[in-house]
Amino acid sequence: MIELMNVTKTFTTGKKTVEALKDVSLRIKKGEIYGVIGFSGAGKSTLIRCTNLLERPTEGEVLIDGVDLTKLKKGQLRKERSKIGMIFQHFNLLSTATVYENVARPLKLSKVPKHEINERVEKYLKIVGLEEKQHVYPAQLSGGQKQRVAIARALAQEPEVLLSDEATSALDPNTTSSILELLLRVNKELGITIFLITHELDVIQRICDRVGVMHQGELVEEGSVIDVFTKPQHPQTKDFVFDDANFKVPDSIKKGLSATGRIISLTFIGSSSSEPFLAAITKKYEVVPSILAGGIDQLKANSVGKLLIHLQGDTAEVEKAISYLEEREITVEEVAS
Ligand SMILES: Nc1ncnc2c1ncn2[C@@H]1O[C@H](COP(=O)(O)OP(=O)(O)OP(=O)(O)O)[C@@H](O)[C@H]1O
Question: Can you tell me where the transmembrane regions are (predicted)?
């Protein structure tokens, strides 16, 4: 459906050159929700803007349904672009136009017949739950409502793909949840493929099927959300997955615990969370585990358990216990002392 092949983007300002994307390739399947996560400056916005050619790649191909957008003339590009809707962090609504007008205007520009414009505006405002707000102006809406208008505007073009550029980053947690629910519904009920970028792990966890991790212009890791969460490979991915305030051991405590054993984090998929593996290692080996923190993250289709433990015992026994855990598909990560 969406294929980026060896995409490179270089910005040159004066004498300064920034390689925002370095040979990025990825493939997004029809009907899936694919998220790219990365810290600020990683190249996420450039990547998503290259997908609809808001930004033209310096090199590489951008294929939508097999058609390479970089090779198209203006008129053909406009036509292909109508398959791609987009929403933004700051909504990008026209402040001088009503909600109705905001949704209708792009349709007028695309020369959609008047009666159809009416039908579509009503249909999509209803889907986003704002049919009552047709005649108000954006300034009279909350952030979440503004994003709903932006979603209705994108959907009214009846696209196959929705690009989301940090759509929930300016919203509070409750509003974020309701917008994520709406995106899930749009994906499921309207069959629209979603490609989103975010710096929030939570967004990936809740709605994405697959995830890519960007770091300094490169796609350093990708896979199903469950795999990337339970077996992160790249240091950058580990930073995201293990960067949970509740799982941080204060330095003052860490020093004392490190002197008497090892501090390790365990990550496991839902079904293995019911196995009493801590009891098992205590029975099998000369080790004493103490729980420092624990929790369960709900992903879109799975749950992932996390435990932070202090493992006491002599080196060989601790190693054996760790091997036992790893054989059970539990990801064991040592917390630096
Ligand atoms: N129009 C531009 N001109 C020059 N440099 C740019 C331009 N757009 C982006 N960059 C640079 O490209 C790099 C990647 O930026 P990009 O905005 O894609 O990252 P990001 O991961 O989306 O970060 P953020 O979340 O902070 O927007 C940065 O070093 C940025 O300064």
Answer: none
Phi then psi dihedrals of residue 211, to 5 deg: -140, 145
The residue whose CB lies within 8 Å of the most ligand 1 atoms, and thus the one to mutate among 10, 18, 203, is 18
Nearest atom, ligand 1, residue 21 CA: 14
Rounded Cα distance between 201 and 215, Å, is: 15
Residue pLDDT, tens place only, 287-315: 999 999 888 888 888 888 889 999 999 99
Q: Which of 10, 11, 220 to mutate to test the pocket of ligand 1 (most atoms within 8 A of CB)?
A: 11
- To the nearest 10°, the Cα dihedral for 200, 202, 206, 210? 50
What's the pLDDT tens digit per position in 140-177? 999 999 999 999 999 999 999 999 999 999 999 999 99
- Render pLDDT for 73-96 as a digit per residue (tens, 0 to 9): 988 998 899 899 999 999 999 999
The protein residue with its alpha carbon nearest to ligand 1, atom 24, reads: 40
* CB neighbour class for 96 (10 Å; exposed up to 12, middle 13-18, buried from 19): exposed
ipTM of the shown complex: 0.97
DSSP helix/strand/coil, 257: helix
Options 3.40.50.300, 4.10.480.10, 3.40.50.150, 3.40.50.80; which CATH number does 2-241 get?
A: 3.40.50.300
Residues at CB less than 6 angstroms from ligand 1: 11, 13, 18, 20, 38, 40-46, 199
Report domain 244-334's class: alpha beta
